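Below sits the subject:

***
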Amino acid sequence: MSYSVGQVAAFAGVTVRTLHHYDRSGLLSPSGRSRAGYRLYDEADLVRLQQILFYRELGFPLDGIAEIFEDPQANALDQLRARQEQLEAEIARLRRLSEVAQRAIEVQRTGVPLTPQERFEVFGEITADLSYATEAALKWADSPGQRESMARAAAHTKEDWRRLMGEATAWRAELLAAFDDGEPSDGERAMDLAEEHRLHVSRWFTACPPDMHRRIADDFAADPRAFALVVPPTRQRPGLAAYLCKAVHANAARRVDGGDDRRAGPADEPERPTSPRRTDENTDRRRRIAR
């Protein structure tokens, strides 16, 4: 029994134009022609078409399919195995992209609904690189601390962000002063500043025991995007990120040696500031440390 090109296109789910292209390329030439010259496909042609569509569904190019048809015994198994490996790699890539997209959505949702003017007023030069934020969200996706941090960030009001960034600005000025004054990274002044940063994270985002603080500091030293969250590029100095990282590690060791390595975190988390007056007291305390 023979079928016209229109019939084959209809029940194979392809276009007539596609069948014409397969014919011109030699991939699938119909076995017959009608008296009027129209293409006619027999059962063997339909079997070959099914094979073509199978390989196309797997993503094979037409020239690759042609190679398989030239010597099915020699080519089909190897090419199918190679394609399977490619598909598995692509599936893994797409799954990761899906996770990145989901995390990007979550990261975006944690933002405070501010106008561009308000955002600049509150955050100044500090900006979050979305690629880093997304990677961090993926890296710590299974961490309760990450989930808590995002939830608390999402709950911050505009005034919360003002106070948070005010603390961060005062701390950053003290860090730069200590670095510029040549204070050793494992000295009391630098370690006290590291401790201030750890308490700041605990106060505003999530409990930050020393071991977690070390990992945060390692990111500062390894990734400029992470360090830009605490010191904007225009204020950075060569070696400053490594200096802060060493200070954090020294402070963590100090706390561990002192028997204060509270890995659970909540017990040494200070109260969140509830008024501008408390924030002022914290700033005054940091200034006394800097002296």
